[in-house]
Each structure stands twice: as C-alpha cells, then as structure tokens.
Design a protein that fits this description.
The chain is built from 12 helices and no strands. By secondary structure, the protein is mostly helical. Helix 3 packs antiparallel against helix 4 and helix 9 packs across helix 10. The termini are far apart. About 7% of the residues have low confidence.
Length: 198
C-alpha cells in the first residue's frame, strides 16, 4: 500500500512539474506580447514551447499566422499549431482549421474543427457546421449548428434560423425559424435583429 501511495505521489509531482516547464518563459512572453514587443515575445514563447508549454506553441502559431513582428509564415504557423494540437489545445485546432478553410482545404479543416467540436467547444461546432454548409452538406451543417446554438453561440443560432427558414438540412418551419432568430437577436446578433424587423 505504501509503495502505491509513493508511486501515485511521484506521478502527480511529475505531472505538475511538466505543466510548470516553460511557465516563467511563457509569462514573460505574454507580458512582452501585451506590450507589443513581438520579437521578444516570440523568443520567449519559443523558449517555453521547446520545453513543452502547449499554450506557448499555440501563441507561436498565432504570431506566425498573423505576421506579428515578422512576415506571415503559414508553414511555421501550421508547424506550431500541430504541436499545440498534439497537446490538446482547442484554439490551435480552430486556428489550423481556419488556415485550411481559407485555402480551400475543406477536408483538413473539417478534421481540425471536428477535434474541437468533439471536445464540446461551441466555436468548433459552429465552424464544423459552417464547413459542411459551404460544401452543401446541409444535414451535417444543421446538426452542428444546432449543437453550437444550444450552447449559446449567436452565429450558430442565426444559421439554425436560416436553415429552418429555407428548409436546408431540416423541414422548413417558420415558427422555429423565428424562435431561433429571436434567440440570436437577444444575444445582439445584428442580422437576426434585421430579420425580425422585416
């Protein structure tokens, strides 16, 4: 029994230490980033990322994607997003999916958004639905928009309303369409407000 307790304590200590690796560098990087000292931020994020800090990996991907302190470099952005995804970082899943979506790599984008959606992320669900919508796979689009809408995502609510209104992926139903427009409008969705005022 004592051996099991000691082993469990050792495992917990190792997990905590692994999570703390790179934390000081990450904190310095974040402060530099907030001050828009992008070169310093990138250097510190890189130090943290090479120690296994997943959020630093995501932050590097974001900086490379958006050209903060450098020219945009999508291959580097993809590299760091993939590393962060391997660590379970949801925003990296979405970031990489958006890069793929914007470059018409819809199947790769679908895979990234699905990873986030399966982690119950409302943005991942919405983007997966939008990916299917663009590809005219309306049943799947409706399913994922609805999942996201039920979690409170205003754009998803609007798309569910539109799909009910047009009978895409579901049976047309003006009452349900109006209900979803109203829910989106209550969240401040401009287009939903306009639809209700027509």
């Amino acid at each position: 029994m004592k051996v099991l307790f000691t082993l469990a304590a050792l495992c917990i200590t190792m997990i905590v230490q692994a999570q703390e690796k790179g934390h000081a560098e990450y904190k310095k990087a974040h402060q530099a980033y907030q001050a828009e000292k992008f070169e310093e931020a990138r250097e510190e994020y890189l130090k943290a990322a090479t120690q296994g800090h997943v959020a630093a990996m995501y932050s590097l991907g974001y900086m490379y994607e958006n050209g903060q302190g450098m020219d945009p470099d999508y291959s580097e952005a993809i590299h760091w997003y993939r590393k962060a995804i391997a660590g379970g970082h949801i925003d990296a899943m979405i970031g990489l999916g958006i890069i793929y979506q914007n470059n018409d790599a819809h199947l790769e984008a679908e895979n990234c958004f699905r990873l986030a959606a399966e982690k119950n992320d409302e943005n991942g669900m919405f983007l997966l639905g939008y990916n299917y919508y663009q590809r005219e796979m309306f049943d799947e689009a409706f399913r994922w928009f609805t999942s996201s809408a039920k979690k409170g995502h205003a754009d998803a609510m609007f798309h569910v309303a539109e799909m009910y209104s047009n009978g895409l992926g579901t049976t047309a139903d003006e009452q349900k369409s109006t209900d979803w427009y109203r829910k989106a409008a209550e969240k401040g969705h401009r287009e939903a407000i306009e639809k209700l005022n027509e």
